[in-house]
C-alpha cells in the first residue's frame, strides 16, 4: 500500500454512481486524479419486469413464495390423505372423478345421511379432498380453530354466489343456507340440456369479463360450514370431524417467521432489538429529540431542565387527538410559555446520529395511525380499546399490527390475550382495514428493555442520550451503536446496489492508498429509492408539472394580452398568482392592488443572506406596506404604531388568508388547506428564519443518512471526539450544491468541461457522473454554505423581480469572499484542468455493474404455453425435433436410425423409442414446443426463457468447401440458466453443453454444428455489461456509419465511439450493443444546445433497439473485451478466478 493524502467524492444517481479519488497536497490543493469512474447499474430491476420496474428481489420473492406454497400444499394434501386412510375413508385418484362429480358428491353428502357404507365413505373422502384444493380465503389474523364454530354461511361472497345462482336459474333462489356444492348442483339440474355453466372466472384478459357462477373468491368459513354439515350429517365422530376439518383448512402464517433472525442489542446482547413501531421506541425517540433541544435564556443557550423535559414530554404524550394541538414547534413553545425564537436545535442530528429533531414536534406514531383509520366505527372501537389497555397490552397490539408475530402462536399468551380477544371480535372487513395500517418499519438499535432504561434516565435526570448511556451502561465517550457493513443489504434493491458498488470501491481505495481525508456524497432527489417507487412518483410528478406548465402558459398569455409584457418572467407569474388568490387586495392592509402597483414581499425574512423562497412565504402587498415593514417579520411589524395606523393587524391578515382560493386555480382541496395553514403560521411567526447553515445543505433523506452512518462507522468506528484530527470526515450533500459548484467552477475557469458534445453537461456523456464526484470531493462546508446562499439569493431575486436594498446581484455573491472560499475557487480551477486532461486522455472509464452468479433473473416467463402434440409415427421435421419438450425426447428422436440431420424423421409406422424408461409406439403422441423461441417444459406446457441467458461463448469456426479450403467465421452459443442448474458450484463459463441442451438446440445451426464437429476454437465469453472495444477504421455502412460520422462531428474525444457495451443477445447470431460512454437521455438537450437534428439511426442505437450487429461482423474487426476491477482498471490476470479481459489477434499479430 502506498499511502497518499486524498479526498473522495461519490455521486449517487438514479441508475449510476460517480466515483472519484482526488490526491491533494499538504495545503489541500488537488494535484492528481487517483481514480475516477462512472458506474452504471440497473437499480436492481429485473430484466423481465421492465414495464412494472419490479426488482429482482420482488420477482424472486414471488417465485420463492410460489414454490413454497406448492411445496406446502403438496405436504398438506399428503397429510390429509394419510389422515383419511387412517380414519377409514378410502382415497381415490383425482382422475377417477369427472366433470362436476365432486360437487354432486359434496351436495349429496350435505343433503342427508348416506346409507351405503362404501358410498358414504367415498363421499366424505371426496368432499374433504376436493375442498382442500379449493378452500377459499381466510384472514391471516384468524386461526383454523375459529372455523370449528361456523354454523351458517354469512360472507358477502356467499351472498354473491346466491345472487349469481338466481340469475342462472331465472330468478329462482336456492334453498336458505344451502351449501356452495348444493347451489352448484341446483344450477346444474336447472340448466340441464343448456350450455355448460362456467364455475369460475378466467384470469385471461380476453375472458375475465365472462359471467361465472362463483365470485372472484370464497371465504373459508363458507366452505367450513359445508364440511361441518357434511361430517355431521354423515355421523362422523366429533373428534374425527374436528381433526379432518383442521387438516383441510390447516395453514402456516408467515407472520413472525423473521423473529428468530432479529439482531441483538449491543448494550444488552441477551435482548433482541425492538421494533421502531413499538411504544418503547416511540417514547425513547420523543425524549431523545427533547434532550437535543436548546433554550435561549438571556442570550445563552442551555439544555432543558428536568422539569421542562418532563412537562414537554407529557405535553406531547397527551396530544392524542385527530387534530393535533401541538402540530408545530410554535404551538409547543406557546404552551410551554416560551417564545419560538428561544427554541433552538430543530433540524439537528440527535447525539446518536440515528435521527433528527424533526421540523414538527414528535408524537406517538401508532396513535396517529389509529386516528387515520377512515372507518369511523372501527376507529372509535380501536381507540376505546387503546384507552383502556395497559402499556403491555398496547405493545402486544403494536406487535400484531406490525406482522412480526404469529397470532396463532400467541393465543394462549397472557400478554396478548386482550389484543387477540379484540381482534377475534372483528369481522373480516374490519380485519382487512386493521391489517392495512402502515406501521413504521425496521428495528431500533436497542432492545425494549434498554430503550425503557434510557428513556427513564433522560426523563428523570439532566442527561441527554450520550450521558444516559454512560451512566446506565457504563460505556465511554467514544461508544456508539455499531453499524452494519457498508455493503450489507438494507432490503431496498436500488440502495443495496449503490451500497455494494460504494463498498467495493472504498475498500479498494483504502487498500491501495490508505484512509482518505474526507468522503463526501452527493445524491439527487429520490436517487436512493426503488425503481418502482421512482416510476410511480415520476408519473405523478410529471402529471403535476404538466398541469403546472399549462397553468403557467395560461398566465403568461394573460400577462401578454392584458399587461403588454413581451416575455413574462417567473416573478411576474408569482405576482399575478398571489394577486389572484388574495382577491386583488394587499395581504397586510387590504388596500386594492393591481399588477402594476404592488410588490412581492417575504412575510418572514431570514437572518443573514438570502430568504425563505417557499410560496407560503410570499405575499403580494402595496408599496407602502412593503416599505414600512422592511426586513422584519410581519407579526412584529403589525404591532408597530405605523402599521396600526394603516389598519394592519394579524387577525385581519389571517382572515384574508382564510378567504383565499375562492377564485384561484393555483391550489385546490387539501393543497389549499395545507397552504393556508402554512401561510397563517408564517404570519404569526415573530422571529426571522435561521440563517443558512449545514442543516440547509446536508441531505436529510434517511437512506442517505444510513449510507453516511455506515461509511462513518467503517472508518471512524473506534475514534473518539479527541481524535478528531485523524478521523475521516463524512458528509452528504444535496445534488443542487454540486450543480452550482460545477457552474461556478466553469465560470471561474472561463470554459467548459470537455464532454463529448461540449456546451456543459448535456447528460449525453456518461462521464459526467465521475466529474460530479470529483467536484463534490473538493467541497468544503464553507464553500457549500456560500453556494447555498448564492442559490437562495438568486431564487429570491427572480421571484420578487428586484434586488433588495441590502443585497447585491446574486452573480456577485459573495461580495467579500472569505479566505476559505477563495481557496476553494483556486482549487476548483486546478481541479477543472485535471478533469479536462483526464477527459481528453480517456482516463475516466465507464463501467457497467455485472452479475456473474447463476440467478441473474427469473428462470422462465410466467405465461404457460400449450405444447404441440405429434404422433410418433408421423413425419417430424428437423426444426420440430429441435423443439422437443425434453432433452431425453430429443436424444431419443435424434438417435433413431432413420433420423436425418437435414430433414428430420420421415413417416414410420414401426417407430418405437424409449424416453426415461417409458416406451412410445407409433400411435403415441410426443410433445414439442409450438414456436421457435427458446423454452423449457413447465407444468404440462412450456414457458419462454429468452431473458434467462447467463452468458454467451464466442467461437472461431470454419467450414470446408468441396476443395477442402477452410472458410472462417465467428459465432456464439448463448448459454441459458436452465442448462447451468447443476453447475451452481462449478465454473459456469466452462461447464460442458451436450447436444440436447437448450443452449445448443437454440444456437445458430452452423455454429452449433461446428462446435459438435470439432471445427470451432473457443475464444472467450460475453456477459451483459461487458465492454467491447471495436476498431472503426474499416469502411462502414448503414447505421454504424451514420453513428460514427455523427459523433466525429461533435466536440470531444472521438475515439470513445469505438467503446461499446453488451446490452443483450438479440438472437443466436446477433448481439445488442450500445455506446459505452453515451446515453440516450442526453439527445434532447444536445439537440436544443447544438440546434442539429438527431438522425433516426442515432435514436435507434442509443435508445431502442440498440445496434444489432452479427457476432461475425463484430469479431472480424479483432476487438478487445475489457473486464475491469473495482478501480476501473482493465483486468488481464486474476489470482481469484475473476473473468479477465481478452482480445482477438489480428492476422499480423497471429
Can you offer a commentary on this structure?
The chain is α+β, with helices and mostly antiparallel strands. The protein has six domains: 6-46 and 487-530 and 695-848, Nucleotidyltransferase, domain 5 (2-Layer Sandwich); 70-248, no CATH class; 263-330 and 349-473, no CATH class; 555-693, no CATH class; 868-928, Alpha-Beta Plaits (2-Layer Sandwich), CATH 3.30.70; 1023-1150, no CATH class. The two termini are 38 Å apart. InterPro entries: Cas9, Cas9_alpha-helical_lobe, Cas9_b_hairpin, Cas9_C, Cas9_Topo, HNH, HNH_CAS9, HNH_nuc.
Short structural description:
With about 1150 residues, the protein is of the alpha+beta class. The protein contains 39 helices and 25 strands.
List keywords for this structure.
1150 residues; Nucleotidyltransferase, domain 5; alpha+beta; six-stranded mixed sheet
Range of strand content: 5-15%
What is the overall silhouette? globular
What's the architecture of the largest domain, going by CATH? 2-Layer Sandwich
What structural category characterises the helix and strand content?
alpha+beta
* Uncertain segments: 720-724
Number of strands: 25
Helical residue percent band: 40-55%
CATH topology of the largest domain: Nucleotidyltransferase, domain 5
First and last CA, distance:
38 Å
Instruction: Give the mean pLDDT.
Output: 87
CATH class of the largest domain: Alpha Beta
CATH superfamily of the largest domain: Ribonuclease H-like superfamily/Ribonuclease H
Give me the oligomer status.
single chain
Report strand order across the widest sheet.
10-7-1-2-3-11
Count of domains: 6
Cofactor: Mg(2+)
GO molecular function, one term: hydrolase activity
Pfam families: Cas9_a, Cas9_b_hairpin, Cas9_C, Cas9_Topo, HNH, RuvC_III
InterPro entries: Cas9, Cas9_alpha-helical_lobe, Cas9_b_hairpin, Cas9_C, Cas9_Topo, HNH, HNH_CAS9, HNH_nuc
Amino acid at each position: 500500500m502506498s499511502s497518499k493524502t486524498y479526498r473522495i467524492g461519490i455521486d449517487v444517481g438514479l441508475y449510476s454512481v460517480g466515483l472519484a479519488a482526488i490526491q491533494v497536497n499538504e495545503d489541500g490543493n488537488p494535484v492528481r486524479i487517483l481514480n475516477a469512474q462512472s458506474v452504471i447499474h440497473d437499480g436492481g430491476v429485473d430484466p423481465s419486469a421492465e414495464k412494472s420496474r419490479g426488482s429482482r428481489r420482488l420477482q424472486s420473492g414471488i417465485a420463492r413464495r410460489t414454490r413454497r406454497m406448492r411445496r406446502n400444499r403438496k405436504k398438506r394434501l399428503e397429510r390429509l390423505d394419510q389422515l383419511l386412510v387412517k380414519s377409514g375413508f378410502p382415497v381415490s385418484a383425482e382422475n377417477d372423478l369427472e366433470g362436476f362429480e365432486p360437487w354432486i358428491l359434496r351436495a349429496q353428502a350435505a343433503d342427508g345421511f348416506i346409507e351405503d357404507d362404501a358410498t358414504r365413505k367415498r363421499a366424505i373422502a371426496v368432499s374433504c379432498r376436493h375442498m382442500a384444493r379449493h378452500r377459499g380465503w381466510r384472514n391471516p389474523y384468524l386461526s383454523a380453530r375459529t372455523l370449528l364454530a361456523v354454523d351458517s354461511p354469512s360472507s358477502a361472497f356467499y351472498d354473491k354466489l346466491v345472487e349469481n345462482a338466481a340469475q342462472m336459474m331465472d330468478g329462482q333462489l336456492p334453498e336458505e343456507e344451502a351449501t356452495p356444492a348444493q347451489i352448484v348442483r341446483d344450477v346444474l339440474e336447472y340448466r340441464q340440456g343448456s350450455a355448460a355453466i362456467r364455475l369460475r372466472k378466467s384470469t385471461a384478459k380476453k375472458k375475465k369479463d365472462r359471467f361465472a357462477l362463483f365470485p372472484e373468491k370464497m371465504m373459508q368459513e363458507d366452505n367450513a360450514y359445508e364440511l361441518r354439515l357434511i361430517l355431521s350429517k354423515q355421523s362422523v365422530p366429533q373428534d374425527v370431524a374436528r381433526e379432518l376439518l383442521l387438516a383441510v383448512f390447516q395453514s402456516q402464517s408467515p407472520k413472525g417467521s423473521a423473529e428468530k433472525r432479529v439482531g441483538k442489542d449491543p448494550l444488552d446482547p441477551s435482548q433482541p432489538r425492538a421494533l421502531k413501531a413499538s411504544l418503547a421506541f416511540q417514547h425513547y425517540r420523543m425524549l431523545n429529540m427533547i434532550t437535543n433541544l436548546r433554550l435561549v435564556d438571556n442570550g445563552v443557550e442551555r439544555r432543558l431542565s428536568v422539569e421542562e423535559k418532563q412537562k414537554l414530554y407529557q405535553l406531547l404524550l397527551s396530544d392524542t387527538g385527530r387534530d393535533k394541538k401541538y402540530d408545530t414547534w410554535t404551538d409547543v413553545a406557546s404552551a410551554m410559555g416560551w417564545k419560538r425564537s428561544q427554541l433552538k436545535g430543530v433540524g439537528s442530528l440527535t447525539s446518536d446520529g440515528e435521527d433528527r429533531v424533526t421540523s414538527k414536534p414528535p408524537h406517538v406514531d401508532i396513535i396517529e395511525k389509529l386516528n387515520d383509520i377512515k372507518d369511523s366505527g372501527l376507529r372509535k372501537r380501536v381507540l376505546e380499546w387503546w384507552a383502556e389497555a395497559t402499556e403491555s397490552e398496547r405493545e402486544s397490539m403494536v406487535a400484531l399490527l406490525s406482522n412480526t408475530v404469529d397470532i396463532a402462536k400467541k393465543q394462549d399468551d397472557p400478554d396478548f390475550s386482550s389484543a387477540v380477544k379484540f381482534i377475534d371480535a372483528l369481522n373480516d372487513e374490519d380485519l382487512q382495514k386493521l391489517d392495512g395500517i402502515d406501521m413504521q418499519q425496521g428495528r431500533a438499535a436497542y432492545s425494549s428493555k434498554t430503550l425503557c432504561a434510557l428513556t427513564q434516565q433522560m426523563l428523570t435526570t439532566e442527561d441527554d442520550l450520550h450521558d444516559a448511556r454512560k451512566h446506565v451502561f457504563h460505556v465511554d465517550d467514544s461508544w456508539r451503536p455499531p453499524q452494519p457493513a457498508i455493503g450489507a443489504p438494507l432490503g431496498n434493491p436500488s440502495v443495496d446496489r449503490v451500497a455494494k458498488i460504494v463498498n467495493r470501491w472504498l475498500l479498494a481505495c483504502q487498500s491501495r492508498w490508505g484512509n482518505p481525508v474526507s468522503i463526501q456524497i452527493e445524491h439527487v432527489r429520490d436517487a436512493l429509492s426503488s425503481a418502482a417507487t421512482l416510476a410511480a412518483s415520476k408519473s405523478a410528478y410529471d402529471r403535476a408539472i404538466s398541469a403546472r406548465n399549462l397553468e403557467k402558459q395560461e398566465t403568461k398569455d394573460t400577462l401578454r394580452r392584458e399587461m403588454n409584457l413581451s416575455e413574462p418572467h417567473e416573478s411576474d407569474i408569482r405576482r399575478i398568482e398571489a394577486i389572484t388568490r388574495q382577491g386583488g387586495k394587499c395581504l397586510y392592509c387590504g388596500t386594492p392592488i393591481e399588477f402594476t402597483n404592488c410588490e412581492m414581499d417575504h412575510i418572514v425574512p431570514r437572518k443573514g443572506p438570502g430568504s425563505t423562497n417557499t410560496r407560503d412565504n410570499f405575499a403580494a402587498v402595496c408599496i407602502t406596506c412593503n416599505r414600512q415593514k422592511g426586513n422584519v417579520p410581519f407579526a412584529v411589524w403589525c404591532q408597530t404604531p405605523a402599521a396600526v395606523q394603516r389598519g394592519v393587524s394579524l387577525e385581519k391578515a389571517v382572515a384574508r388568508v382564510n378567504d383565499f382560493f375562492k377564485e384561484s386555480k393555483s391550489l385546490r382541496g387539501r393543497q389549499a388547506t395545507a397552504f393556508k395553514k402554512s401561510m397563517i403560521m408564517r404570519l404569526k411567526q415573530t422571529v426571522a428564519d435561521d440563517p443558512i447553515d449545514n442543516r440547509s445543505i446536508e441531505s436529510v433523506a434517511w437512506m442517505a443518512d444510513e449510507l453516511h452512518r455506515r461509511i462513518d462507522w467503517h472508518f471512524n468506528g473506534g475514534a473518539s471526539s479527541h481524535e478528531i484530527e485523524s478521523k475521516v470526515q463524512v458528509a452528504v450533500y444535496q445534488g443542487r450544491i454540486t450543480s452550482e459548484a460545477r457552474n461556478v467552477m466553469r465560470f471561474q475557469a472561463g470554459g467548459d468541461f470537455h464532454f463529448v458534445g461540449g456546451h456543459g453537461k448535456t447528460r449525453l456523456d456518461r462521464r459526467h457522473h465521475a466529474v460530479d464526484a470529483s467536484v463534490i470531493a473538493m467541497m468544503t462546508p464553507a464553500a457549500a454554505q456560500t453556494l447555498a446562499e448564492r442559490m437562495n439569493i438568486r431564487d429570491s431575486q427572480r421571484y420578487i423581480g428586484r434586488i433588495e436594498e441590502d443585497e447585491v446581484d446574486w452573480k456577485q455573491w459573495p461580495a467579500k469572499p472569505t479566505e476559505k472560499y477563495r481557496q476553494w475557487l483556486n482549487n476548483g480551477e486546478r481541479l477543472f484542468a485535471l478533469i479536462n486532461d483526464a477527459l481528453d486522455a480517456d482516463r475516466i472509464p465507464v463501467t457497467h455493474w455485472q452479475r456473474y452468479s447463476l440467478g441473474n433473473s427469473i428462470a422462465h416467463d410466467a405465461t404457460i404455453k400449450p405444447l404441440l402434440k405429434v404422433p410418433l409415427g408421423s413425419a417430424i421435421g428437423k426444426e420440430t425435433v429441435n423443439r422437443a419438450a425434453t432433452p431425453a425426447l430429443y436424444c431419443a428422436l435424434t438417435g433413431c436410425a432413420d433420423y436425418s440431420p437435414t430433414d428430420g424423421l420421415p413417416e414410420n409406422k414401426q417407430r418405437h423409442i424409449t424416453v426415461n424408461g417409458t416406451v412410445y409406439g407409433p400411435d403415441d403422441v410426443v410433445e414439442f414446443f409450438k414456436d421457435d423461441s427458446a423454452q423449457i417444459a413447465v407444468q404440462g406446457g412450456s414457458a419462454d426463457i429468452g431473458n434467462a441467458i447467463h452468458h454467451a461463448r464466442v467461437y472461431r469456426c470454419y467450414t470446408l468447401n468441396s476443395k477442402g479450403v477452410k472458410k472462417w467465421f465467428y459465432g456464439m452459443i448463448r448459454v441459458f440458466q436452465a442448462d447451468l442448474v447443476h453447475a451452481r458450484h462449478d465454473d459456469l463459463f466452462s461447464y460442458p453443453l451436450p447436444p440436447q441442451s437448450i443452449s445448443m438446440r437454440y444456437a445458430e445451426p452452423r455454429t452449433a454444428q461446428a462446435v459438435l464437429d470439432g471445427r470451432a476454437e473457443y475464444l472467450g465469453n460475453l456477459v451483459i455489461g461487458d465492454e467491447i472495444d471495436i476498431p472503426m477504421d474499416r469502411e462502414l455502412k448503414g447505421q454504424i456509419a451514420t453513428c460514427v460520422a455523427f459523433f466525429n462531428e461533435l466536440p470531444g474525444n472521438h475515439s470513445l465511439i469505438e467503446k461499446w457495451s453488451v446490452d443483450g443477445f438479440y438472437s443466436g447470431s446477433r448481439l445488442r450493443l450500445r455506446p459505452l460512454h453515451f446515453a440516450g437521455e442526453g439527445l434532447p438537450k444536445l439537440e436544443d444546445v447544438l440546434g442539429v437534428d438527431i438522425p433516426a439511426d442515432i435514436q435507434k442505437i442509443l435508445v431502442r433497439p440498440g445496434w444489432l450487429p452479427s457476432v461475425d461482423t463484430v469479431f472480424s474487426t479483432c476487438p478487445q473485451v475489457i473486464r475491469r476491477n473495482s478501480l476501473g482498471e482493465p483486468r488481464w490476470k486474476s489470482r481469484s478466478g475473476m473473468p479477465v479481459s481478452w482480445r482477438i489477434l489480428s492476422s499480423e499479430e497471429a
